[in-house]
Amino acid sequence: MKGFETAGPGAPPVRSPDTTVPTILLLPSMARASSPTPAEMDAARRWIAAKFVDGRTPSLGDPPILEPPPPPQNATPPLSFTYDGQPSADLLNSWERQRETQILDDHRTRHTLGWTDPETGLVIRCVAVEYHDFPTVEWTLYFRNTGTADTPILEDIQALDTRLEQCQPLSPFILYHHTGTLVTAHDYEPHQTILEPNQELRCAPSGGRPCGTAYPYFNLQWLSEGLIVVIGWPGQWAARFTRDEETGLRVRAGQEFTRFRLRPGEEVRTPLIVLQFWKGDRVHAQNVWRRWMVAHNLPRPGGKPVAPQVAACSSHQFGEMIHANEANQIQFVDRYLAEGLKIDYWWMDAGWYVNETGWLNTGTWEVDTKRFPRGLRAITDHAHARGVRSLVWFEPERVTPGTWLYQNHPEWLLGAGGGQKLLDMGNPEARGWLTDHVSRLITEQGIDLYRQDFNMDPLPYWRAADAQDRQGITESRYVAGYLAYWDELRRRFPHMLIDTCAGGGHRNDLETLRRAVPLLRSDYIFEPIGQQCHTYGLSFWVPFQGTGVIATDAYAFRSIMGAHITTCWDVRREDLDYDLLRHLVAQWRRVAPCYWGDYYPLTPYTLDSAHWLAWQFDRPDRGEGLVQAFRRADSAYESARFRLHGLDPDARYAVIDLDAPRSRTLMTGRALMEDGLSVAIREQPGAVVISYRRGERK
């Protein structure tokens, strides 16, 4: 047998001589846990103090501190804009200022900075939240016209504009970033860009959906420290990373294009900006981010953490739901349960509503009673009686000709001509109707999980609706309305989970992921290598993610395993290997809680079918974790050895291959991290799932 070694993280495989010891010794092991370090917390506190805090720290329960701040010294707020032709740096120090600081809870303090232009009545609020359990700060800007006339032109608003310095002139800044959604195997592909002096890298999505082509999550590294930069904006954002000639890097981010006047009483907001400070190891920093996502962002319906989920659907048997009816939906639910395949959700996808030309004909949100004479309620009641909840697809923003919205409320729609149009979520009347209408359907049809798709690019509609002195306004209002719509649904249905889908993963920005989870992370589905690489890239940022499987073999199933899985099997068939399917689902349920844990790639990223791919998810709070390894179809290597991460070096771990659960190996954490875990896969292609559990310390 032959083995190979790699020269380091991200390096291509280096062939080694023939050997009887098959080895893939990859990334250096990380023994320390992924909790924030004191140095990281101190770096965050010092930066926040320089930008947002006046030195006074209230206690929990105290009233807000509301007073004019002391005169600024050298610090400037991390934002910029141009107002009436003048840069904000020349304006803010002369405007009236106010600062309010208030403890929100044991883990968060809110700092609100305010500036007022006494001449025009423009008021700016910067609402920042400081986290005390993570080296993290976030903020959003609000611009409001309190005057009686339109403001002068406000433009080039950068919600983030800050400068980073390092002490060594020749040391590079390295930007780690990812491909957005292309609906290909390359979705979420990780990239590393070295920013040379006088170089600028600009990133922006295409079409107005925030994760199309570019991904709004970044990690900057210089020397042995770094900064995570994340933009929360379900619209068209842009980020620029600009090196100077010496030791500095300027970082700017915001809505891509803004140039408008504000009318009296009008207010707009900017993208949410999140910064996380780190020291030492970049993968450690990503795991601190994952922990912050779980602790402070992942939706908690009914106040409870989201549990691992398995859903099932028949979309691939009935043309989404164009050929579905009450009888065949009930048949599929019963067949899954009859085969011992316990599902958490029955998924009813596009096409259940009245339409004339297929599921793409959206805009009449009423159940098609020709196919569902008793409504979807007959199916959801049947499923509920058997312990299965319901998931139903909507795409309310896209409105096509011939539908109820198109014919009855053209004043609510964006777009000219006779083609498809966009329901204006920034129109309060349209949003109010949609909220009430969808709420009625959720209640009447017994819907447990609301799934929202978005299969069109909104940017041309937004920009076409803006006058020359109002550019960016339609997008800003639309984004605020979209978020308000979901917030109201969550208020009315506090136990309901929302699934975000926009042609797959086109809208998985942070503001969206605070309200929803991505059960289908990309519309590029099923193909195993692409699914493996989607998990590899997206897991740096998103702990809860899902996708689907239609093949019935172990390699394909293990390639899609995550916190959520959707099975698309045709359970009408009696020739499927149901014993294997039950075995695979049971294995997934056993390890699924580990996907919330710390994430460690064990190999470099690659789509090459000649190479292995592997990763580890570790739950130090539970003393357990999992390793998944994939030997692809053209790999010549039957076995590999991987150094694990984050373990207790002095504890013993029981290591179990889930395909041989009666055989277990006892190894110390030190041995697993230093010598590595040996993995053999004889199938080509093939995959293994290995679990481990911490036992006693030596």
Describe the protein.
With 698 residues, the protein is an alpha+beta fold. The chain has 3 domains: 4-32 and 595-697, Sandwich (Immunoglobulin-like), CATH 2.60.40.1180; 38-296, Beta-galactosidase, Chain A, domain 5 (Distorted Sandwich); 301-592, Aldolase class I (TIM Barrel), CATH 3.20.20.70. The protein is built from 14 helices and 40 strands. Strands 3, 6, 7, 8, 9, 12, 13, 15, 16, 20 and 21 form an 11-stranded antiparallel sheet that branches. Strand 26 (413-414) and strand 27 form a beta hairpin. Helix 4 packs parallel to helix 5 and helix 7 runs parallel beside helix 9. It is globular and about 75 Å long.
Descriptive terms for the model:
seven-stranded parallel sheet; Immunoglobulin-like; 14 helices; Beta-galactosidase, Chain A, domain 5; 40 strands; globular; 698 residues; 31% strand; TIM Barrel; eleven-stranded antiparallel sheet; alpha+beta; single chain
